[in-house]
């Protein structure tokens, strides 16, 4: 079966970096688009270029929105550091972005190919802008597999997950499009897929340049979770959105109606899923509730080690 055609929209970010490596192994990545999120756009774009150069990936990177639709830009240095990819010694990046028009790239790529998956793993600004500028592309999509939201507690606030909170108006547009098939990997799912010292050691044992770089990323990422929550495990959020496209058999999904709170003082960015038995709200997405974490972890470690 042909590899799924995807556009990976991201804000690297430690877990975004792993999602890039995983996607390149299992998908036909037509483009990587970047957005302000974990770090400012200049850095998330540089980090995407860094990962592509490090892994020898011939994938165009297009820079996108440097701020959300309406709310002020916010970043996540506590989780990802000032550069967005703190931890490893930072290699020189010789590559440049293919354009600063990620939205145009999304529109033209979807118009030029059948059955493209959009895989956004950062704030949904680029996706919302593309849908607003070119509504015709929605029905051409194979689907939208996003990392964002939560059925249950958030991370950036008690009620909201960072990607949705960072641009709630964009998220509301995306969830409301009724795209043929929106798959949501929220925190309730992604916290089931954690890396720890075992995976870090496996990458170090492999010893390639890419696996050593990712082992350094994991150690930084893990240190943050250890300090903040006393955990020896760090969730691999963004790779879940890739695996939901390449290996949906590893997941359990339930169709739900999900809406996004944009105005609440305490609930801005909350993804409100209607879980009422017998609700008459028609579903607009497939919410991932569980996955085979062992199989998913093995796929992630194997993908990273496959780069030599
Ligand atoms: O809340 C987790 C999400 O926010 C992940 O995509 C992570 O990379 C950050 O963007
Ligand atoms: Ca991300």
Task: Walk me through the structure.
This protein is α/β, with parallel strands linked by helices and 308 residues long. It contains 12 helices and 11 strands. The strands form 2 sheets. It has a 9-stranded mixed sheet with strand order 3-2-1-4-5-6-11-9-10, sandwiched between helices. Strands 7-8 form a two-stranded antiparallel ribbon. β1, α1 and β2 (28-34) form a beta-alpha-beta unit. α9 runs antiparallel to α10 (209-229) and α9 runs parallel beside α12 (293-305). It is globular. The two termini are 25 Å apart. The model has no long low-confidence stretch (mean pLDDT 97). Residues 11, 13, 15-16, 37-38, 76, 121-122, 147, 155, 161-163, 237-238 line the site of alpha-D-ribofuranose (RIB).
Q: Estimate the mean pLDDT confidence.
A: 97
Beta-strand content estimate? 15-25%
Low-confidence stretches: none
Q: Sheet with the most strands?
A: 9 strands, mixed
Tags for this model:
308 residues; two-stranded antiparallel ribbon; single chain; binds calcium ion; alpha/beta; nine-stranded mixed beta sheet; binds alpha-D-ribofuranose
In short:
This protein has helices at residues 14-26, 41-55, 77-80, 102-112, 125-133, 162-166, 168-176, 187-190, 197-206, 209-229, 237-246, 293-305; strands spanning 5-10, 28-34, 61-63, 116-120, 143-147, 182-185, 194-195, 234-235, 251-260, 271-274, 285-291. With 308 residues, it is α/β, with parallel strands linked by helices. It binds alpha-D-ribofuranose and calcium ion.
